[in-house]
Structures are given as structure tokens and as C-alpha cells.
Amino acid sequence: MEQRQLQAKILIEALPYMQRFDGKTIVIKYGGSAMSNEELKKSVMQDIILLQMIGVNVVIVHGGGAAISKALDLHKIEHQFLDGLRVTGKEAMEVVASTLIGQVNKSLVQYLSEKGAKALGLSGVDGRMIEATQLNEKLGYVGKITNIHPEVIEIAFSNKFIPIIAPIAMNKNGDLLNVNADTAAVEIAAALKAEKFILLTDVRGVMKDKDDPETFIPRMTVSEVKESIANGTIQGGMIPKVQAGIHAMQNGLKEMTIIDGRIKHSILLELFSDVGIGTLIKKDE
Ligand SMILES: Nc1ncnc2c1ncn2[C@@H]1O[C@H](COP(=O)(O)OP(=O)(O)O)[C@@H](O)[C@H]1O
Ligand SMILES: CC(=O)N[C@@H](CCC(=O)OP(=O)(O)O)C(=O)O
């Protein structure tokens, strides 16, 4: 089949799926390889533009842990993680905010704008979107989310802007706090009662053996996820991701999918087929 015919066929087959998400909200946590590799970044941006074109209210919450570590090194500020969270002193907080808001966020807005899309760069400070308190003394300026005020996101939707959100929160005193991007994304998805939350990571999804992609699990219920944490199948960095998802599902989120951000157009492949490509986690029936 000719290339053009093939493209038309793919589009026709995708049509019923496109209609399924018309007017619905999809929140995407963007990070990992999909962010650091230019080709993959381009394909994610194209997917996002297409979703908006077909009427999806799409929200991007981005990470940037690698860029923060690089910036802290440049400023000769020591850094370390405790239970997966970055210990963030006052000086480090300034670097975290300027890197995520000034560098990572703006580069995504620039990229989308250059392609003709309407993108709106935001952080959790804008419209007090992400309200938090200090998680604990040891971690310094790290936030525990207490409230999401989604009004500013809704303003973006009603004006056909794609909100691009940096995971920086604010406390009641106006101090900035560093929030893990997975957690921020999933809490925003819950507050918006999103149809779907997609988390891009650097593995195929959840696996029975984390080092063997052949043991990939396509669908899980919340109880199965809890069981997999208890029996040690889900470990390390995957635990906070699925736990945040379970918490959000108890508070308004319909479902979440963990997908492989190392695959080109992974978002469209996930959304526009019956089976998807990632691990779909849903509430028990
Ligand atoms: N059962 C599992 N299935 C898949 N990945 C798992 C599992 N258990 C632990 N992991 C680990 O979780 C990691 C993903 O978490 P993390 O490294 O924090 O991701 P990211 O950098 O994308 O935020 C994977 O690279 C993998 O090593
Ligand atoms: C408190 C905390 O750890 N915050 C993260 C925020 C960025 C992030 O989460 O980025 P990734 O999604 O790329 O890991 C950090 O400082 O690295």
C-alpha cells in the first residue's frame, strides 16, 4: 500500500477512538527519555497537538529531575534524594524553580508555539493551582499537596490553550515548594476528574519481573496493584507512581496508564486502539 493510503487507513481506523475522547480531559505526565531525546520530544509534541485538534482537553505536567541535577551541579550546590524525593534547601529551591519554570517549562511552550499550537506555561504558583505544606523538616522545601485549584486550567481550556505545568507548589506563607512531578500530575488529574491519566516512563509498563519486558502486565485492578506491592513485584520508583494513582482514583480519577515514553507516538498508540500499549490500572469492578 502506498504511504498516503496507509496514513488514510490509520486515520480512518483511529476515528472511533478520536470520538471517544472528544471534549474529555486527558492529563499527561511528561518526563524521562521522551523529554531528553529530541526525536521523541518531537513525537510527543505532535501527539499533543493532534489531541487538541480533535477536541481533547489535554494537560501536560512535566518533570525535569535531570535538568535540575545539572543546574545544581553548575551552581556547586550539593544534592541528594531521600526516599525518591530531592532534599531541597533554600538555595536549591531557587535553582529548582528557575530550572523548571524558566528553562524546562518555557522550552516546551516555545516548542509548541513554534508549531502553531496555543500553549500556556504555568506552574503550581499561578492561580495558587498547587497548594502544599512542607512534607517534613529533613527534606527542606519539599511540598505535600493539600489542595489543587484547577480554575486557571479551566480558563486555558475555554480559550483552547494547552496548559503546560511545572510541579512547583506554594504554601500559605507564599514560599515555593518542590513537588515530585508524578504526584503533582496525578493530583491535578484527580482534581479535574480526568478521563485518563497517562504517565510516560522509561519501561514498558508494570512487569512481573521488572527486568524482563516479556513479563509485561497489560491490565491491573487497584487490588492487584496493592498485592504486587505487598509481594515485592512492584518495587522502587514504580511504587510511588502506582500509589499516587490509587490515591487519585479514590478521589475522582477514572483510570491511569503507565506507558513507554521511549516509543515514538506512544500517546497515540495508547489512546487510539482497543488494547493500548501500556499498563492500564482501573478500580476494582
Ligand atoms: N514491577 C515493576 N515493573 C516495572 N518497573 C518496575 C517494577 N518494579 C520496579 N520498577 C522500577 O521502576 C522504575 C521506574 O521508576 P523511576 O525510575 O522512578 O521512573 P522515572 O524516572 O520515569 O520517574 C523502572 O525503571 C523499574 O526499574
Ligand atoms: C521533590 C522532588 O523530588 N522533586 C523533583 C521535581 C522534578 C521531577 O519530579 O522530575 P522527574 O519527573 O523528571 O523525576 C526533583 O527535584 O527532581
From TrEMBL:
It catalyses: N-acetyl-L-glutamate + ATP = N-acetyl-L-glutamyl 5-phosphate + ADP. Pathway: Amino-acid biosynthesis; L-arginine biosynthesis; N(2)-acetyl-L-ornithine from L-glutamate: step 2/4. GO terms for biological process: L-arginine biosynthetic process via ornithine. Keywords: Amino-acid biosynthesis, Arginine biosynthesis, ATP-binding, Cytoplasm, Kinase, Nucleotide-binding, Transferase. GO terms for molecular function: acetylglutamate kinase activity; ATP binding. It is an enzyme of class 2 (transferase). Substrate binds at G64, G65, R86, N178. It is found in: Cytoplasm. The record marks K29, K241 as: Transition state stabilizer. Residues 24-259 form the Aspartate/glutamate/uridylate kinase domain. The keyword Cytoplasm applies. One of its GO terms (cellular component) is cytoplasm. InterPro entries: AceGlu_kinase-like_sf, AcgluKinase_fam, ArgB, Asp/Glu/Uridylate_kinase, Glu/AcGlu_kinase, NAGK-C. It comes from the Bacteria. Its EC number is 2.7.2.8. SUPFAM superfamilies: Carbamate kinase-like (SSF53633). Catalyzes the ATP-dependent phosphorylation of N-acetyl-L-glutamate. HAMAP family: ArgB (MF_00082). Belongs to the acetylglutamate kinase family. ArgB subfamily. This is Acetylglutamate kinase.
